[in-house]
Amino acid sequence: MHAFHASPQRFMLRFLFLLSFLALGGCASLSAADQQSIAGKTYVITGASSGFGRGVALRLAGMKANVVLAARRTEVLNEVAAQAQAAGGTALVVTTDVANAQDVRKLADAALQRFGRIDVWINNAAVGAIGSFDTIPVEDHARVVDVNLKGVIYGSHVALQQFRKQRAGVLINVGSVESEVPLAYHASYSATKAAVLSLGRALNEELRLAGLRGPIEVATVMPWATDTPFFDHAANYTGRTARMPMMDPPEKVVDYIVHTSLYPSEEVPTGWKARGAVWSHHIAPDLTERISANVVHKSQMESAPPTLAPTSGSVQQPMREGTGVDGGVRARMEREDAARKGQ
Q1: What is the DSSP letter of 112?
Q2: How many CB atoms neighbour CB 191 within 10 A?
Q3: Of 19, 211, 237, 278, which one is least surrounded by beta carbons within 10 A?
């Protein structure tokens, strides 16, 4: 136990590396034929102003897809649309708060009016609140549920209605490793991501019973902690800068999402760390949760430098900051850790 507490991140890394060999690996690369098959398809992408959503939109546009861009930040979406069209795609901007069912209905209607069909719907928009559960205002917890769960339900509802009419379509819900492994200081976020995973499983069974499984598929993509603007956008009541150890680059998850749109499977952990965590939780749930909690406590509550004040981030209102695919969190953490060691 002493060795573990001395370096919980290293212990976790080795633990997941070993367990990853038990999991089935997945390849997220696309062939030239795959890329050609994306041309002309219509993708609806929520949370398209930054992070995975922006990355996926630009990747698909480079393959000449139609991308329907949804988020709260209209000006940023217009920037993404210009980049998408310069890359060879066709873009439509629809300002959307996914927590509003009418907004989501209007998003679907706009996509259909412009392109006639929806081939893939990607529920990617999400917000988070970091801190001890009872120190986070209940209004922020409620908004996390509204965006991460209700928003996915609203998007899934309109997408599946259209897919049933078309008799084809792929619904991708972006979950998280936290869909499987609940994480300390992320309580309401973990709860919503677990619900997203259960939703996808239930929907696939309904499709099977209706004889529609195959032409219509629901996939839950489950990323490991990834360096996107999410951490700077999250509500933060820890008194410290938001961070997470062993982050993946966002391009990895973008590749998995695009690949899943062509080759959907029910659950898609993105890479060996994500697969290792999922399998670890299947084998030893209590141990996995304890190790994960210790790692995040060390990184977030002990190693992160203090901040000036709590913030609700972009949970209640969108922020001007954080419009890229990469969030720069890894670089910031390196600077913070170097400064701490130099003291």
Answers
A1: H
A2: 17
A3: 211
- Could you give the CA distance from residue 291 to residue 296 in angstroms, rounded to a whole number? 9
Q: Which two tokens stand for residue 213?
A: 């499984």
**Looking at the predicted structure, is the pLDDT value of residue 21 above 70?**
no
Is 189 considered catalytic here? yes
Backbone angles phi, psi at 316, to 5 degrees: -90, -40
- 120-155 tens-digit pLDDT: 999 999 999 999 999 999 999 999 999 999 999 999
Q: Bridge-partner residues for 44, per DSSP?
A: 68, 121
- Within 10 angstroms of residue 249's Cβ, the number of other Cβ atoms is 14
Q: Which residues, including other chains, have CB under 8 Å from residue 327's CB and lie 6 or more apart?
A: 51, 227, 228, 229, 230, 231, 232, 250
Long-range CB pairs of 57-61, under 8 A, 24+ apart, other chains included = 57/84, 57/89, 57/91, 58/83, 58/84, 58/87, 58/325, 59/254, 59/255, 59/258, 60/89, 60/258, 61/85, 61/87, 61/88, 61/89, 61/90, 61/91
Q: CB neighbours (10 Å) of residue 97?
A: 18
Number of H helices, E strands in the chain: 14, 9
Q: Match 């939703």 to its residue by tokens.
A: 199
Q: Whose CA is closest to 325, among 51, 58, 125?
A: 51
Indicate the pTM of the whole model.
Answer: 0.93
Backbone φ and ψ for 138, nearest 5 degrees, come out as -65, -25
pLDDT digits (tens, 9 = 90+) for 322-334: 999 999 999 999 9
For the cut 60, the answer to whether the pLDDT of residue 115 exceeds it is yes
Burial class of 278 by CB neighbour count within 10 A (0 to 12, 13 to 18, 19+): buried
| pLDDT, tens digit (0-9, with 9 covering 90-100), for 268-318 | 999 999 999 999 999 999 999 999 999 999 999 999 999 879 999 999 999
Among 154, 185, 189, 237, the one annotated catalytic = 189
Handedness of CA 262, 251, 46, 117 (dihedral sign): negative
